[in-house]
Design brief:
alpha/beta, 15 helices
Length: 323
Amino acid sequence: MKSFQTLAAIGFAIACSGQVAAEVKIALDSPADLEGSGTYVWAHTFAEHLNANGMQAVEYERGALGEEAEKLDQVSQGLLEVSMSDLKSAGQLANITYGVYLPYLFANAAELDAALIEGGMLEKINEDTTQQGVRVLAFPALGLASGIFNTKQAVVSLDDMSSLRMRALDEVQIKLYEAWNSTGTMVSWSEVPNALQTGVADGYLNPPFVPLMFGHTDFIRHFTDASVNPSVRTAIVSEDWYQGLSDTERATVDEAAAKATAANRAWLASRVNILEELKAAGITVTQLSPEARDEFVEASKKTYTDGVLNAEEVAAWLAATGR
């Protein structure tokens, strides 16, 4: 039924556009909130630039064109032009993508951007993904760096993690929780509220805005500002669509991506008051001491050699960051 509904939505989009190439469909991954959602800032800026330059771009609300796996399948087949997708969507096509999540590798978004562009990692990622019909345009920031949310207790040291079972997005996070002597369980995002309320999971690793935007403040009680890794998703496009554009249109898409990324990073720099918003919502905010942070950093390094990346891939990311 879900697949039928997704195909119906795509068919409706095509029918409304008159022809497939006339409309650039953009599948959103968050509410259309320019203040609260960094990925929407990226998507909307991208769409506005296309529309201003003669390419009709239309935003489709989260879930309207399917969930993550369905969107990836549609992009790879050329049925969906643009999708705001999770990192796993690109990671399963190019394993090296997961280097974006190497804990404590990047001090900020600027360091990530330098590794991607000057360090050549975006090109390396696309060497693999484009062979499978998908091009990564950018890594839009969701918010400030990921921290530890949970329903049970304040996390002030690494030892506090041992009593928590954390919701995991993917195998990358499972490996990280294991390095922290914790456990992880894979839970789809739509099932997270139920998992947290029933004890299937005690918390998650996410940027500070997440419980505010998704209404989790009734059961999330604690946040540790651990600044583990950049909180990003991927802006992916159909490679068939991208290569089928005229030179002028392709340049417009590239310009739109650059403009959207700049807007997203400017938005990120404006999120300085988000921790106060958490406190106002009744969530206790904990800052790690330098000693406690060092514990997390050292434990996390296990994932560099015992994670989802091989030694060559880790070396490429380290070289791209100048380490």
